[in-house]
Amino acid sequence: MTNLIKPKALITGASSGIGKATAIEFAKAGIDIALVGRSKDKLIGVAGAIEATGVQAKAYELDLADVGLVREQIQLIASDFGGIDILVNNAGIGYIGTLSATPLADWLKVMNINLTSVFQCIVGILPTMRSRANGTIINVASIAGKQPFPGWGAYSVSKAGLIALSKTVAAEERDRGIRVTAICPGAVNTELWDTLDSDFDRKAMLTPEIVAQSILHTALLPKSAVIDELTLMPSAGTL
Fold first, then answer.
1. Which of 36, 110, 155, 162 is catalytic?
2. Burial per residue of 113-140, b for 16 or more beta-carbon CB atoms within 10 angstroms, e otherwise
3. pTM metric for this prediction
4. What is the tens place of the pLDDT at every residue in 170-184?
5. 155 labelled catalytic
6. Looking at 85-239, which runs of residues are DSSP E strands?
């Protein structure tokens, strides 16, 4: 990392779930954090709790669904925060429905938020990482991107695309000192499930904190090492 005393991270979807848990784990490790999400009030609450640990945390309101604005806004956030050493692309949405029954508008919404916005975040942050010849990008994908599930078509495709995006950026940027990891968790018990009609046993799912600890471990690896792809499953298996 460029700043060994106070590395700086940017986390999307940081107001709840895996993003919030990751921010808390990063703060415990002494990492300053730019918190990005749609709800400024929730982000401010997370920032306040984090700053009590002695690290810097700042809330940035950004709707990643506005993909045409994401690249420029991420560049502005990075500049305002004084550079970014670690980018965690966590924001995403779930979607249940067979491909044949998925309206084009829904398909585009899933692809824009789960894949295109991540592409925009990455290209927005690459200039500052390239200038330092250093950086870590962690993309939160899903087991659904490796093992498609019937009825989760658009979601599975978006996460498979995210895994491919991660591998491509890794191949293109490793000579510039930039590491890229795709983390593929199984079902995680987050607020996302409140909006989905599913009979999965949420008590058997991974917790956001477990995923966050894996993200932190990945980020803190020595510069000479990288986890290209990490599959993290509930011990109960696929739910």
1. 155
2. bbbbbbbbbbebbbebbeebebbbbbbb
3. 0.92
4. 999 999 999 999 999
5. yes
6. 86-89, 135-140, 178-185, 229-232
